[in-house]
Structure formats: C-alpha cells, structure tokens
Specification:
Strand order of the largest sheet: 2-1-6
Number of helices: 3
Helix content: 10-25%
Number of strands: 9
Radius of gyration: 17 Å
Oligomer: single chain
Strand content: 25-35%
Order of helices and strands: HEEEEEEHEEEH
Shape: elongated
Distance between the termini: 25 Å
Length: 136
C-alpha cells in the first residue's frame, strides 16, 4: 500500500477519485491518518450531504460514532491495479529490477520511455503516475 503522503501528491497532481467498493482511504487528520478504511456498501458508502457535497457514510456502529466524513477530508489510497489503470497507455511494463531489490515501471513518454524504480510495485507505479500526471 502506498504512503498517505504519496496519495496526497497524486491527488494534488490531478488524480480523480470516484469512490467504489473496495477502495481504501485515510481520513486526513493527525489522529486518523495512520488508519486505513475500506469502502464497502455494507460498512462505508458514498453519498451526498444535505449541502450537495460528496460524503462517505459510516453505517451502523461499525466505526465508533463517526456518521460521515466529507470527501475532501479523505485521501484515496489507490491499489496497484488502480494505479496501473490510471497510467493507461503510458504504462509499458512492470518488472523486477536487475538486482532483485525492487520494481521498475517502464513509462511511455512520446517516442521515448522512462524507467521509474522503487522498492515496491505500488510505489513504482505511483511514482510513474506522478511523472505522467506532471507531463499533462
């Protein structure tokens, strides 16, 4: 799972989130940012607030007395498959680095390509997506 700081950078770079079952997110407050939540229609579901904004509603008593949280207060933490999907056609390959100590994402850049390396596959994909979003 990518770090919340990387997830914040992806959001700032323009990665849009349409909440769906199975998505992970964190509530971006000092007390809760280390806690990861899983969006599930049985427990947490997206909705619309009375003012018309998007909210994530906690059903029943599953999460203390937290009823809902505004979508702007949460940070989506995309999974490996979601990062790969967001890269679209810019994603060329995900492979182990030659030393076997990490992963490399080959990213299309016009007629060239660029290799993004990180210790974990999700981190390499997130790094590649940050590069890709900054080019647009």
């Amino acid at each position: 799972m990518i770090d919340i700081d990387v997830a914040r950078r992806l959001r700032a770079a323009g990665l849009d989130w349409e909440p769906r079952d199975g998505d992970r997110f964190a509530i971006d407050t000092e007390d809760l940012r280390e806690e990861t939540f899983l969006l599930s229609s049985m427990v947490i579901e997206p909705g619309i607030s009375r003012s018309g904004g998007k909210v994530l509603r906690f059903n029943g008593t599953t999460e203390w007395a937290l009823d809902s949280v505004e979508e702007g207060e949460v940070v989506w933490i995309p999974r490996e498959d979601q990062l790969r999907e967001a890269l679209g056609e810019a994603f060329l390959a995900l492979r182990r680095d030659p030393a076997g100590t990490g992963f490399v994402v080959d990213l299309a850049r016009g007629t060239d390509s660029r290799a993004i390396t990180a210790p974990y596959a999700e981190d390499a994909l997130a790094g590649a997506l940050l590069v890709h979003l900054s080019e647009d």
